[in-house]
Amino acid sequence: MKITFAEFVKGIRGTDEITGDPRPQVAFVGRSNVGKSSLINALTGKKGLARASDKPGKTSEINYFDINHKFYLVDLPGYGFASTSLADRDKFRKLIVWYLSESGAKPICIALIIDAVAGLTKFDEDMLTVLKGESHPHIIVINKIDKLTQRDLHARVSGVRAAVGDVPVLLCSTKEGTGIQELNEYIFTE
Length: 190
Fold this sequence. Notes:
By secondary structure, the chain is α/β, with parallel strands linked by helices. The protein has one domain: Rossmann fold. The protein is 32% helix and 21% strand. The chain has five helices and seven strands. The protein has a seven-stranded mixed β-sheet, sandwiched between helices. Strand 5 (109-115), helix 3 and strand 6 (138-143) form a beta-alpha-beta unit. The longest helix has 16 residues, at 86-101. It is globular.
């Protein structure tokens, strides 16, 4: 889908009418500093739309972005390591679980973003368990593939595919623009 309009709508930290909006939602979830915001910026072609940072834990709310007045891209806070207190990390985790389990949101797709270098972590495996338990349609996006050699990337992708079974796996690099169009085509089905 050609994205002609992308705008930040709001950030929420709990109950809000936007979670029940009938527009389809596509949510991005992953560890802190995995590149969720950078992927949103690359997908929309709007640098700075989602605030990306080198400091893990920058996203502290569930951020909604209006895409072509037809979809919402939803940027969930990162889980796992973040440059914040343990209490804040726990709040982020609870906010993610709330969105996935209790908010009433029914995302048409959840993209679980995995760092190519780190691979599938225990935190990612826990998130997969939640996604499957809630029966959310989801895909795996291995991001930052430019940081691996072809040999290491092949080994990483094989390991992830073996661990996730029949869940689709896409490869991306926001730095090189690799896989961005494929991700767009996969998540935005009209």
